[in-house]
Amino acid sequence: MCLWTFKSLLALFADLVRPQHNQHSHCYCCLLHNICLRTVNVIFRNLDTAADCSLSYKELKGLLKSQMTLIDVREKWETGQFGKIPGSINIPLGEVMEALQMNPKDFKERYNQDMPAKSDHLVFSCMAGVRSKKALDIAMSLGFSRVQHYAGGLEEWAKYEPPETKQ
């Protein structure tokens, strides 16, 4: 089922449980309607962000030329062993929550990069897209509004070009 059809069905369901009278806080049908509307809004928001947040190799390659921050959420030993996407900074998944809430001075000291603002464009990557999606969810929960993840990860990147390795 396409996304548009699914959204239309959810909206139709919300209309079906709409009370046929003035809303009351104690009325069962009004409570059901309000719960349904909140649920529909959460589902819409999640569907929209899920559809818009995943990048392909070509999209990421194009973005690397623009003003965005690419964060590799793999462990430090992984970047040492397998390399990284050029231009990325390493913030392991376990540190993402703390890092994105740091004092800008501390962030710069620790990661040798300016602290991203909540309105900055962030892209998360990992080995195969699982951890980057979790990092995306963390960033969104902290109020970052322009976040995406590279679902193919370093595995896909390496099919097109060699990862950057330390010399």
Going across the biggest sheet, name each strand in turn. Answer: 1-5-4-2-3
Poorly predicted tracts of residues: 1-6, 46-51
Provide the CATH topology of the largest domain: Oxidized Rhodanese, domain 1
Helix/strand-derived category reads: alpha/beta
How many β-strand stretches?
Answer: 5
N- to C-terminal separation?
49 Å
Q: For this structure, what is the CATH homologous superfamily of the largest domain?
A: Rhodanese-like domain
Describe the sheet with the most strands.
Answer: 5 strands, parallel
| Overall pLDDT score | 82
- At the first level of CATH, the class of the largest domain is Alpha Beta
**What oligomeric assembly is this protein in?**
single chain
Count of alpha/pi helices: 8
- The percent range for strand residues is 5-15%
Order of helices and strands: HHEHEHEHHEHEH
As a percent range, the share of helical residues equals: 40-55%
Taken from the alpha-carbon principal axes, the silhouette is globular
- Taking all Cα atoms into account, the compactness measure Rg is 20 Å
Number of folding domains?
2
CATH architecture of the largest domain: 3-Layer(aba) Sandwich
